[in-house]
Specification:
By secondary structure, this protein is of the alpha+beta class. The protein has 19 helices and 17 strands. 54% of the residues lie in helices and 15% in strands.
Amino acid sequence: MGRVASWIWRGLGLGLAGLCLLLAAPAPTLGAGAGAGTAPVPATLQIGSDLRQTSLSPYLAYYHDVAAGDDVDAVARRLAQGQFAPLPGGQSSFGFRPGAFWFHARIVNRGNPEQRWLLVQSYALSDHIDLYARYPDGHTAFQAGGDHLPFSARSVRYRHPNFWLTLPPGQPVDVFVRVQSESSMQVPLWIYTPVAFAELSRDAQLVIGMYYGILLALFFYNLALWLSLRDASYFWYLFHLSAFGLVLFTLNGFGFEYLWPQSSWLSDRMVPLSICLAQIGMQQFARVFLGLRERWRFGDRVGLGLIAFFALLGIASTWLPYHISTPVASAAVLVSIAWIAVVSVTVVRRGYAPAQLFLLAWAMFLLGTGLFVAIAFGLMPKTFITEYGVQIGSALEMLLLSIALGHRYAALRNENERIVREARDQLEHKVEQRTVELRSALGQLEDAHARLRESSQRDALTGLHNRSHFRDRFESLLRQSREHHHPLSLLMIDLDNFKLINDQHGHLIGDECLRWAARTLGHGLRPHHDALLARFGGEEFVVVLPGLNLSAATRVAEDLRQSLRDQPFEGGDRQISEQITVTASIGVHAIETVSFGGIDPLLQLADQALYRAKADGRDCVRTSQVETV
């Protein structure tokens, strides 16, 4: 595992170095279209009879209107003057830029029977998108979109901005697209036939649905673990998973589609705010999972500082301009996860094994986040891998973190089991002292999610199974009897006049007497290997006898009663002046056919038989009526 951690560390180093180079690299330079002069004009898009969808990027020319003051007529004149330029390197991502960007493509329908096409911008966060379609007869069709308009204004109810575009056969159509936004300037434009778009949206929804399905499955699985274990690591894992799911829900356009379709304010603010929430959960989860407070105090303090930074940035993002808060939050993401990589490597080197899986999970997330930051700043082209890099990396991260939580829990459980074994060894030498220590250990281990399963099933005084474990095992035995149609009998045993022993000899002698009674009963039940013996409470014991009917169970009860009476209690480790004869009253209830609705009515019947034995003078065995349910 140490060698694996070394490989992961080297991979993280290479990944961080590459991402730092990406962040240090300049954004794509604006070509001739940004200013005056002439530039090569992209080819006209010829739509053949078989074409169903295509990207407009190879056919686009762009112009950067820094002042954002030109209208479509002014831009058309700039196009005629050669002030438009092809996309730099074929990329439609320009990073965070002021002003407006104009894009132009000339499209000619060459015999395609479909005249109604859908133009889609495959980026969900643009504020304003205006589409102008100029036809040879001189008229111009105008449509507006973006997340600063209500979602209902879109041509098709889809997470990405879209516009219907009519392309008559044989007529050249000049398409102008104006984009102005405080978000990253990403303008991947595609045109689709209605059928092709339906297939695209179906496939995209499937991929994204699978991703959110994975997140939901992990959420509810770890929610159940958190509710049962109450481990803070699981809570912060759920917090991080939920917040990061909200980040991607926003980035993918689903937030605007389903949660705030009328709110442009939330459309702008939820990106940096959800990023900050995700980083708060991420840093806190790392602190708790890695135990930084105990293992590396400096790293713990830095983590707290990052949490405070993201909390302040999240608050500030509610009023800071989007073009300030979002780039800062996006860049800070890389710093945050890089720091987590540093602390996880440090904790791995200090010998904490679960941190290795933790480190691998963050390596996956680092890669996916690096792709997200790179396309946000226009440093990489938008492909399937880069577009869904965050989803792929985060899905792997969440899966690995869930596995790491299980590994961490197993490590803690093994450690506590080791503590229990040591406690039992020492119990032979210092009974009273070790009893106090064991109770203290049990109290601590209960706070660590009841990892001492075996100890939690035992009565501390007698060593027998306790009442809670008895109920679980009794239900299981009842089910087995019902499935195999075997009889099952229940014995309720109460030591007679036990209060007199406590009053006359003291509670310590009474405790010794209870231990002696438990050993005597256990010895008497040795021939019955499947019998379940437990302390029910106070001086009461309960026995389940699988496979025995009423008569057989009554004989066993008589044997147990006689063994208690024939072996007087001599005080055990404590001296008493005389032997004490201990008797017991026993109630027997047998179930010949098990088809039950609960165990409480069965216990009540056995208890009634016990009280009948008490009423008949004690030191005897009485039975209930055989129940056929």
